[in-house]
């Protein structure tokens, strides 16, 4: 009997999931796992982190959803095996313990993640275990949208036009999961989700914020936005107005499906939906920039801008971080970030421009503070 392991990462949902779909079709017995990766967690500046708490709560919902889906399909149950350690050690170890034939995952495009995945694949191969990854974070990836000369785009509008020309119903169709869910394997006996304290973290104010977690939270936010999407083009420019989708965190951790969002926008039509679809295309655009130009993680996209001489002004950077620049909209935006972990898109543009163009502070310092 063939068996597989699905490694969940930035795809914390049980529906329209590329790797889960392919694993369930490949194997008669499919295990699911997530790793709280200490290579990432140990570098975080604080032990109370909203992102970690969001992930933790979303995992609890995913665990229950996998079990319910398996039982509804006539299986004996499913769930999520959660480990805490270095992913490049934990995944090969777990795959060997479970005796699986192959590990399935959805593709990541950040340089550190690509390196991690290559190491995992190599370790698995040494143990005679296969590794396969799939497109899931984006509608179009890597080389799927290129110029007529076969080169990656560096300007958004031509990329957007090519994206719109290339997209069709197939590209935004969902990956069936439920119909194969009887292949999900129950969790090993005694396997439970660790608490936040078990992985060295403490609760934040996440519960007090208007940020619902997990798949149900993503659906709640999307349903709310869909009812007002026609006003999006006009309302999105005003930070004090409820005009945006508030789905960025859910897109980041995959509790919503990019394909379903894009499919809805295409089917809905109208200036609001078309403008929002354009924002989703921006997301694909920057993923392909990152893939083709990984140096943008810590250097300028245009090399000549690496020659910019930034001011050594720690007192100005501190004032920016602490919302005491004296410019009301800048300080209000930074307070929003500090209190909620989120900032309106237009405010992000303002504070980033203010930091670099007015204060003369290196953009990398601002990026690290945002991260």
TrEMBL record:
<dbReference type="Pfam" id="PF00875">
    <property type="entry name" value="DNA_photolyase"/>
</dbReference>
<comment type="similarity">
    <text>Belongs to the DNA photolyase family.</text>
</comment>
<feature type="binding site">
    <location>
        <position position="276"/>
    </location>
    <ligand>
        <name>FAD</name>
    </ligand>
</feature>
<dbReference type="GO" id="GO:0006139">
    <property type="term" value="P:nucleobase-containing compound metabolic process"/>
</dbReference>
<dbReference type="Pfam" id="PF03441">
    <property type="entry name" value="FAD_binding_7"/>
</dbReference>
<dbReference type="InterPro" id="IPR036155">
    <property type="entry name" value="Crypto/Photolyase_N_sf"/>
</dbReference>
<feature type="domain" description="Photolyase/cryptochrome alpha/beta">
    <location>
        <begin position="2"/>
        <end position="139"/>
    </location>
</feature>
<keyword id="KW-0456">Lyase</keyword>
<dbReference type="InterPro" id="IPR036134">
    <property type="entry name" value="Crypto/Photolyase_FAD-like_sf"/>
</dbReference>
<dbReference type="GO" id="GO:0003677">
    <property type="term" value="F:DNA binding"/>
</dbReference>
<dbReference type="InterPro" id="IPR018394">
    <property type="entry name" value="DNA_photolyase_1_CS_C"/>
</dbReference>
<keyword id="KW-0285">Flavoprotein</keyword>
<feature type="binding site">
    <location>
        <begin position="279"/>
        <end position="286"/>
    </location>
    <ligand>
        <name>FAD</name>
    </ligand>
</feature>
<keyword id="KW-0157">Chromophore</keyword>
<dbReference type="GO" id="GO:0071949">
    <property type="term" value="F:FAD binding"/>
</dbReference>
<dbReference type="InterPro" id="IPR006050">
    <property type="entry name" value="DNA_photolyase_N"/>
</dbReference>
<keyword id="KW-0274">FAD</keyword>
<dbReference type="GO" id="GO:0003904">
    <property type="term" value="F:deoxyribodipyrimidine photo-lyase activity"/>
</dbReference>
<dbReference type="GO" id="GO:0006950">
    <property type="term" value="P:response to stress"/>
</dbReference>
<protein>
    <submittedName>
        <fullName>Deoxyribodipyrimidine photo-lyase</fullName>
    </submittedName>
</protein>
<dbReference type="GO" id="GO:0009416">
    <property type="term" value="P:response to light stimulus"/>
</dbReference>
<dbReference type="InterPro" id="IPR014729">
    <property type="entry name" value="Rossmann-like_a/b/a_fold"/>
</dbReference>
<dbReference type="InterPro" id="IPR002081">
    <property type="entry name" value="Cryptochrome/DNA_photolyase_1"/>
</dbReference>
<dbReference type="InterPro" id="IPR005101">
    <property type="entry name" value="Cryptochr/Photolyase_FAD-bd"/>
</dbReference>
<feature type="binding site">
    <location>
        <position position="232"/>
    </location>
    <ligand>
        <name>FAD</name>
    </ligand>
</feature>
């Amino acid at each position: 009997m063939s068996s597989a392991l699905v490694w969940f990462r930035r795809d914390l949902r049980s529906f329209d999931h590329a790797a889960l779909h392919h694993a369930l079709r490949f194997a008669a017995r499919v295990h699911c796992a997530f790793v709280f990766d200490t290579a990432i967690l140990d570098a975080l500046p604080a032990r109370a982190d909203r992102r970690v708490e969001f992930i933790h709560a979303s995992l609890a919902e995913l665990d229950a959803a996998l079990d319910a889906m398996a039982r509804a399909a006539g299986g004996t149950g499913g769930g999520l095996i959660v480990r805490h350690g270095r992913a490049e050690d934990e995944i090969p170890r777990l795959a060997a313990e479970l005796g699986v034939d192959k590990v399935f995952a959805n593709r990541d495009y950040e340089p550190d993640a690509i390196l991690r995945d290559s190491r995992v694949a190599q370790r698995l191969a040494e143990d005679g275990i296969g590794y396969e990854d799939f497109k899931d974070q984006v509608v179009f990836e890597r080389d799927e949208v290129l110029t007529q000369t076969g080169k990656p785009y560096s300007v958004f509008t031509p990329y957007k036009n090519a994206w719109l020309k290339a997209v069709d119903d197939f590209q935004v169709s969902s990956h069936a999961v439920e119909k194969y869910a009887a292949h999900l394997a129950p969790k090993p006996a005694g396997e439970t989700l660790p608490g936040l304290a078990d992985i060295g973290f403490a609760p934040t104010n996440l519960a007090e914020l208007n940020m619902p977690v997990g798949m149900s939270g993503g659906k709640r936010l999307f349903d709310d936005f869909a009812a007002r999407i026609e006003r999006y083009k006009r309302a999105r420019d005003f930070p004090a107005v409820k005009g945006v989708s508030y789905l960025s965190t859910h897109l980041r951790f995959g509790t919503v499906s990019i394909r379903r969002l894009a499919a809805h926008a295409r089917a809905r039509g109208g200036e609001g939906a078309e403008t929002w679809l354009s924002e989703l295309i921006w997301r694909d655009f920057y993923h392909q920039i990152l893939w083709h130009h990984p140096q943008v993680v810590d250097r300028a996209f245009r090399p000549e801008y690496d020659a910019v001489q930034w001011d050594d002004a720690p007192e100005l950077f501190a004032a920016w971080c602490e919302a005491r620049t004296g410019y009301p909209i800048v300080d209000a935006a930074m307070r929003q970030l500090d209190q909620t972990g989120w900032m309106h898109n237009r405010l992000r543009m303002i504070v980033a421009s203010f930091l670099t163009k007015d204060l003369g502070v290196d953009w990398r310092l601002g990026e690290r503070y945002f991260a």
